[in-house]
Write a structure and sequence with these properties.
Blueprint lengths: L2 H5 L6 H9 L3 E7 L10 E6 L21 H27 L2 H34 L1
Antiparallel strand pairs: 1-2
């Protein structure tokens, strides 16, 4: 953690300092909010988490892997992983300037996003259906 960030605060807090120092990801924005809630100070922190270190959060849909939706959930996890892999590959190709190869990867990435999106819609519908029961 960059001490410069902490120097922008009008207060010090040992637990916050420790948390920031222990954060395994790049902190891309850090600022103290101009307002205070009752008896509290607020700090806004933006953290960059590399796509390749993320996975689908099935809890977002309110579903559990042991439900009858397991097959759909596994499809979503695979589609999400494929989409993220293609996204990382596209960014790598953009950095190297390989435009033609990047275009091919971008087309595959678009298809993978559509598959992931459709599976996500199906999961959301299943979740809403189960919540009504």
């Amino acid at each position: 953690m960059n001490q410069e960030h902490l120097n922008r605060l009008d207060f010090t807090n040992e637990a916050l300092t420790k948390w920031l120092n222990d954060c395994p990801f790049a902190i891309t924005n850090f600022r103290q909010m101009c307002f205070e809630t009752k008896g509290q100070k607020q700090v806004e922190i933006l953290v960059d988490i590399p796509i390749e270190q993320t996975a689908a959060n099935l809890g977002h849909y309110g579903l559990k892997i042991d439900q009858k939706t397991a097959d759909l959930e596994l499809q979503y996890i695979k589609a999400d992983k494929r989409y993220n892999e293609l996204l990382v590959e596209s960014m790598r190709l953009e950095e190297t300037g390989n435009v033609l190869q990047q275009k091919k990867v971008d087309d595959e990435c678009s298809k993978a996003w559509k598959i992931r999106y459709e599976l996500g819609k199906q999961l959301t519908k299943l979740c809403e259906k189960e919540q009504k029961l």
